[in-house]
Design brief:
By secondary structure, this protein is of the alpha+beta class. About 40% of the residues lie in helices and about 15% in strands. A hairpin with a 2-residue loop joins β2 and β3.
């Protein structure tokens, strides 16, 4: 079934190809293309107290939104997120993702809303998948990054040490993602459980920790590693490095129990301590919902939003490559990713850090379900939403310019809209 029936713009479907023989011969993905909306003629109706007629029988003119460099950057990222979500929707095995950002939750339509936080839609289904949905991932990563950044800034303001510890696992092509990820989870649990961890916390002054998981895929298969930020009472790099070494010993033991290993001298362990250490996990969180999602065509704009290094690709890069080339081996990688990542957490806090910071945790579903705060601009009835949802980012581009710009754009295409209840 075509999820995009009713769109005024046909979707460009991937051409299916057989798997590649060698990754080094990868063709660069083509930039996604789209067909402009066919302009409708005639009159446009809206519920503003009377019927609006197009001037002199012609369509109203809607000028392109005003654009600064920052505006273009933001809008391009939003467009890429939405286009990628649209493409993934056609191949995903996740039922909730199939309706995310696409299906209205009520028969009344979809509201376009604007405020200090930006512009967006209210009344759409969400999936809350930080791993498989580029739109939800971006929103979740922004929330998590801001929340953790505030806590780490508080720690630094109180004179505590913030250390970043990265732990990796040796892997090879053919290792299944689930097996590697399970080993990583077991290794981390080995670090943070039992009496040995209690002693380490006391000896090194561990206030708490936050741990993020990053996954890429390359010529050697799946690469899963942990980024952990530690808040310490004791000052100094020596203390943090010694703690990292003791953590690595238990990490290695946990991996070995699952048939894997790690070598500290070969990149298995990295410890850094500086005033910017708090930003390092924040940069990864931004990348988790940023470059790997929406900056594939704007790599030079944000240093934090960079592609995976060397030949490794993030899962969202793999999805975009498949949609551009139709390479079946990329589709197989993506489907393994969806299956193995489902139900796992991208960011985990220790209870001790939550208690110290006096913060309450929200689930990913709660974060994406939060409605944007602001004013309701217009209500798009079901037939209008069906016509514009394939290019919903363009609706928001005009919404950023305000009520008149948005309604002029809708009227110029003969699309009905209504004043939302309560609009003055």
């Amino acid at each position: 079934m075509n999820d995009f029936t009713g769109h005024d713009w046909p979707i460009q479907r991937p051409r299916l190809r057989e798997p590649r023989v060698a990754q080094s011969n990868r063709r660069s993905p083509r930039k996604p293309t789209s067909t402009p909306m066919d302009r409708a003629s005639g009159t446009a109706e809206c519920q503003v107290g009377r019927r609006r007629e197009a001037p002199l029988g012609n369509q109203r003119i809607a000028f392109p939104p005003r654009t600064t460099v920052a505006d273009f950057d933001r809008r391009e990222r939003r467009r890429e997120r939405t286009e990628l979500q649209r493409g993934i929707r056609e191949v995903t095995s996740l039922d909730r993702l199939k309706s995310c950002g696409h299906t209205a939750v009520s028969t009344g339509g979809v509201v376009v809303r604007g405020g200090a936080q930006g512009v967006g839609f209210a009344g759409l289904a969400t999936c809350g998948s930080v791993w498989a949905c580029p739109v939800c991932a971006s929103k979740i990563a922004a929330h998590r990054g801001a929340e953790l950044g505030n806590v780490l800034q508080l720690a630094q303001d109180q004179g505590k040490t913030v250390a970043m510890v990265t732990l990796t696992v040796r892997h090879k092509r053919g290792d299944g993602l689930k097996a590697v990820w399970d080993a990583v989870a077991h290794g981390w649990n080995r670090i943070t459980s039992g009496k040995p961890w209690g002693k380490m916390q006391a000896q090194h002054g561990v206030v708490g920790w936050a741990r993020a998981v990053e996954v890429t895929h390359g010529s050697n298969g799946w690469h899963v590693h942990v980024h952990a930020v530690l808040v310490l009472d004791q000052p100094g790099e020596v203390n943090a490095v010694r703690l990292g070494e003791r953590m690595f010993a238990r990490w290695s033991a946990g991996l070995e129990a699952k048939g894997f290993s790690a070598v500290a001298a070969s990149g298995g362990l990295d410890v850094s301590v500086s005033k910017s250490a708090a930003d390092q996990l924040g940069r990864y969180l931004a990348k988790m919902g940023g470059q790997s999602v929406d900056h594939l065509a704007l790599e030079a704009t944000h240093g934090a939003f960079k592609r995976a290094r060397a030949s490794n690709r993030s899962p969202f890069q793999i999805a975009k490559d498949f949609l551009a080339t139709g390479d079946l081996s990329d589709l197989a990688i993506w489907r393994e990713w969806e299956s193995a990542s489902k139900g796992r957490r991208a960011l985990t806090w220790s209870k001790a850090l939550r208690m110290w910071a006096s913060t309450e945790e929200k689930t990913d579903d709660e974060i994406v379900a939060e409605d944007l705060q602001g004013d309701d601009l217009v209500l798009l009835p079901p037939e209008t939403w069906a016509a514009v949802r394939g290019r919903s980012w363009e609706v928001l581009d005009y919404a950023e310019q305000g009520f008149d710009a948005l309604t002029n754009w809708l009227d110029s295409r003969g699309l009905r809209w209504f004043d939302p209840p309560g609009r003055i």
